[in-house]
Amino acid sequence: MVMTADRQPDVFAAISHRARRQMLDLLYENERSVGDIAAHFEMSRPAVSQHLRVLLDAGLVTEQRHGRERHYQVQPECLGPVRDWIARYERFWDDRLQRLQRHLAKKNKS
């Protein structure tokens, strides 16, 4: 498990792999079994399980056993550090988009 300096799971490392982001997207729709998740990828079921382990260790998913199957469910609130990091840049984008809007409005008046 990748940990940050303050011993928190590193959600950035967990979402750094495209397949893991896609798995989160699938799980956002609803709870799924490993087999159901694996059916969406061209990788072995053990490889899918390894990716799910990374997500589980980061706290981004929970795992429940249903008989012999393991089902995973997303924990979107654990993406808070990502949300907070992105929020720092929203002001930048808001400013840029407002300037673009003013530029386009001025250009359309010409």
Characterise the protein shown here.
The chain has 110 residues and is of the alpha+beta class. It has a domain at 11-78: Arc Repressor Mutant, subunit A (Orthogonal Bundle), CATH 1.10.10. The chain contains five helices and three strands. The chain has helices at residues 11-14, 18-29, 34-38, 45-57, 80-109; strands at residues 32-33, 61-66, 69-74. It has a three-stranded antiparallel β-sheet. A hairpin with a 2-residue loop joins β2 (61-66) and β3 (69-74). α2 crosses α4 (45-57). The radius of gyration is 19 Å and the shape is elongated. The model has no long low-confidence stretch (mean pLDDT 90).
Secondary-structure topology with pairs:
Elements: H1 11-14, H2 18-29, E1 32-33, H3 34-38, H4 45-57, E2 61-66, E3 69-74, H5 80-109
Antiparallel strand pairs: 1-3, 2-3
Brief write-up:
With about 110 residues, the chain is α+β, with helices and mostly antiparallel strands.
CATH architecture tag of the domain at 11-78: Orthogonal Bundle
As a percent range, the share of strand residues is 5-15%
* SSE topology string: HHEHHEEH
So what's the CATH class of the domain at 11-78? Mainly Alpha
C-alpha Rg, in Å?
19 Å
Largest sheet: 3 strands, antiparallel
The CATH homologous superfamily of the domain at 11-78: Winged helix-like DNA-binding domain superfamily/Winged helix DNA-binding domain
Number of helices: 5
Number of strands: 3
Helicity range: 55-70%
- The helix/strand class is alpha+beta
Strand order of the largest sheet: 1-3-2
Distance between the termini: 58 Å
Overall average residue pLDDT: 90
* Low confidence ranges: none
Categorize the overall geometry. Answer: elongated
User: What is CATH's topology name of the domain at 11-78?
Assistant: Arc Repressor Mutant, subunit A
